[in-house]
């Protein structure tokens, strides 16, 4: 089965897509990306994802080569050509081919990949039983931008797998930040808390905050210490491919009673209602 992608102005078989060895995305790791899923065959929260991609590019002094309107048309074509039941959309922008291998050129490299998201999702059992995460001392550079630099995350995958964890939570001087591909929320005394500074503000995170406020659930964006995390009543992650994922163990510490909590379940139900009716 062919997989179709878009690259630098045309839709093509993914096997034929090529990037120059002189592209600054390859030579210097200079690039940004976005990742979103579909809901009812539509790109989920596309306006938020487009704005974040645009802002990420701007922070690196790059501009997207197409308009939002053109982007929406392209996604519709790609989704239909790949024809997955459920899709994930990965959009990548790199600085492009540099004449001296360091100066940002005027013409970037821009491509869009479509994945079968069913192959990327956690198992259903994790949502009913909860999962484990591990902590790791690290703070991302350019955290306000969704850059292609995932060196630390990739380096730590072997340890994550060794410990049977689903994610790695970055901490900085006893303050919790974000996971490698998701944001984190904790519940204490029926109040929802999530880190505010030093993180990439995720799109799913934003939606959860909006859902909480709309449903009169107490929510605060603030500094959270590791001690607060480990003494939380409930913990869950948010992400485009994870949705609302309950966490029941952090390193060697059991969270709450070791099962997904009531507020986590309530948030998950409200989120799923929004997602399914999108």
Q: SSE layout and pairings?
A:
Layout: E1 4-7, E2 10-13, H1 24-27, E3 31-39, E4 42-43, H2 46-59, H3 68-82, E5 87-94, E6 109-116, H4 124-129, E7 131-137, H5 151-155, H6 157-162, E8 167-172, E9 175-179, E10 183-188, E11 191-194, H7 203-214, E12 219-221, H8 226-230, E13 234-239, E14 243-250, E15 253-254, H9 262-276
Parallel strand pairs: 7-8, 7-14, 11-12
Antiparallel strand pairs: 1-2, 1-6, 3-4, 3-5, 5-6, 8-9, 10-11, 10-13, 13-14, 14-15
Q: How does this structure look, described?
A:
There is one protein chain. With 278 residues, the chain is an alpha+beta fold. The chain has two domains: 4-119, D-amino Acid Aminotransferase, Chain A, domain 1; 124-276, D-amino Acid Aminotransferase, subunit A, domain 2 (D-amino Acid Aminotransferase, Chain A, domain 2). The chain is built from nine helices and 15 strands. The chain has helices spanning 24-27, 46-59, 68-82, 124-129, 151-155, 157-162, 203-214, 226-230, 262-276; strands at residues 4-7, 10-13, 31-39, 42-43, 87-94, 109-116, 131-137, 167-172, 175-179, 183-188, 191-194, 219-221, 234-239, 243-250, 253-254. The strands form two sheets. Strands 7, 8, 9, 10, 11, 12, 13, 14 and 15 form a nine-stranded mixed sheet that branches. A hairpin with a 2-residue loop joins strand 1 (4-7) and strand 2. The longest helix has 15 residues, at 68-82. The chain is globular and about 55 Å long.
